[in-house]
Amino acid sequence: VQLQASGGGLVQAGGSLRLSCAASGRTVSTYAMGWFRQAPGKEREFVAAITWTGSSTDYTDSVKGRFTISRDNAKNTCWLQMNSVKPEDTAVYYCAAGNTIRTVVTGQPHSWGQGTLVTVSS
Asked: Residue 101 and residue 10: Cα distance in Å, rounded?
């Protein structure tokens, strides 16, 4: 499966941004999906994940209450809605797919998309 992330850009602190991850090559309707990010000089970290049904989600503590992950299996697409963004959210964001939400949360997805850069200005 090929994953294409988009929607990054420059946003002011306190603003909102929505990232999209479009899948192609095969359906991702039976895969868990997730988002990771890598800030300059730092390791890539888990951000959010969602089960294949969309019934369960997981977030890293620093984005809880601000970011929302969602998906539409009919559109083969996953989104990350980012609200109340902070300068520390600045990073390259990557989408990923895994067999279970646990494999995504633990950083072991089987497919990665290319990154999209999010820059939050203060």
From this structure: 30
Long-range CB contacts (within 8 A, 24+) of 28-31: 28/1, 28/3, 28/52, 28/73, 28/76, 28/78, 28/97, 29/73, 29/76, 31/1, 31/97, 31/98, 31/99, 31/111
pLDDT, position 101: 96
pLDDT of residue 29: 82
Please give the average per-residue pLDDT across 47-59, as a whole number: 97
Single out the residue of 122, 118, 121 nearest to residue 40, CA to CA. Answer: 118
- The answer to whether 114 and 19 have CB atoms below 8 angstroms apart is no
What's the confidence (pLDDT) of residue 26?
78
pLDDT of residue 92: 98
Structure-token pair, residue 4: 């294409």
* Six token digits for residue 14: 């306190």
pLDDT at site 25: 83
Count the neighbouring beta carbons within 10 Å of the beta carbon of residue 31. Answer: 26
65 CB contacts (<8 Å, ≥6 apart)? none
